[in-house]
Amino acid sequence: MSEIKIGNRLVGTGQPCYIIAEIGINHNGDINIAKKLIDVAVAAKCDAVKFQKRTVEVVYPAEELARPRESPFGNTNGDLKYGLEFGQEDYAEIDRYCKQNNITWFASCWDEQSVDFIEQFNVPCYKIASASLTDDGLLCYTRSKGHPILMSTGMSTLEQVDHAVELLGKENLVVMHTASTYPALYEELNLRVIPMMKQRYDVPVGYSGHETGLSTSIASVALGACVVERHITLDRAMWGSDQAASVEPQGFAHLVRDIRLVETAMGDGVKRVIEREVPIMKKLRRIDTKGSGL
Fold first, then answer.
1. H helices of 169-247, where?
2. Is residue 1 scored above 90 in pLDDT?
3. For the chain, what is the radius of gyration of the CA atoms?
4. Distance of CA 3 to the CA centre of its chain
5. Any domain includes 61
6. How far does CA 33 lie from the centroid of its chain?
């Protein structure tokens, strides 16, 4: 299956790469920071921004929420998790602001209640986080909403990915190659998995990167990734667990620019004499007696 449709955009082989700015939890619970990150994504000409939605008390057991952890929100892990979570008013503003700025938004939902919450905004697709790949119930529930699904495959065996693909079905599915380390080391990226997955699953394949640089995300496009997702931040030095593996505003603009340049440079694979080569050829090439060249 070479392409799917997300909103009004075709995504897949032969289409421009679909570039996602993953805001995730880098908003630090502040809607104004979220809106600034949306502005950066719009300025960089991204196709979409993505958030993360959790029903905290469903995703995390009580003992985990009670665990001591210092943060700007309090002294427990629960204080942190609840502090980072946007609610109804926040997402209504995100929806309004993204529509105003003509950029798509969606979310990775970590539980069924979160899927129901995000569904009210009529998002064009859903993301399955790597952490959720083995959650059969969540996969089936997300699929029941009838939207395209992008599924990250970090921290998963090939057999686990096979099972998830079989469970979801290949229709309206993008499989995202991922290394779930933050930030990821270059030797962990294994970008050659991208063409392997294209052949194995016959669905559009993307890349969700957590490395510090840009070159390997750009290289993923040359290897066949039709979706590229990177975390976005205003400043990597900001407080937050995902900031160090994120891309700052100038870097994100360069990422989008260079992906588009690579797409242009890939061409159609047909070897021919370029029209602008002809005068150079006449000037530089030694012609043999038969006129065929040496």
1. 193-201, 215-222
2. no
3. 22
4. 16
5. yes
6. 20
Q: Which domain holds residue 190?
A: 3-268
Q: Confirm whether 121 is domain-assigned.
A: yes
Kindly provide the b/e burial profile for residues 163-184, where b requires at least 16 CB atoms within 10 angstroms of the residue's own CB: bbbeebeeebbbbbbbbbeebb
pLDDT of residue 246: 97
CA distances for 28 relative to 37, 71, 192, 242, 282, angstroms: 11, 11, 34, 10, 62
Q: Are 231 and 252 in contact (CB under 8 A)?
A: no
Element (H, E) at 22: strand 18-24
205 has a pLDDT exceeding 50: yes
What integer is the mean pLDDT of 193-205? Answer: 97
Q: What CATH number is given to the structural domain containing 189? A: 3.20.20.70
Output the six-digit token pair for 237.
């030095």
132-172: per-residue pLDDT in tens?
A: 999 999 999 999 999 999 999 999 999 999 999 999 999 99
284: in domain? no
Q: What is the DSSP letter of 187?
A: G
E strands, 171-283, in order: 173-178, 205-209, 227-231
pTM of the complete model beyond 0.90: yes
The string of pLDDT tens digits covering residues 215-245 is 999 999 999 999 999 999 999 999 999 999 9
The answer to whether residue 293 is domain-embedded is: no
- Mapping DSSP to helix (H, G, I), strand (E, B) and coil, where does residue 180 land? coil
> How many structural domains does the chain have?
1
Q: Say what the pLDDT of residue 294 is.
A: 47
Question: Are 215 and 226 a contacting pair, CB within 8 Å?
Answer: no
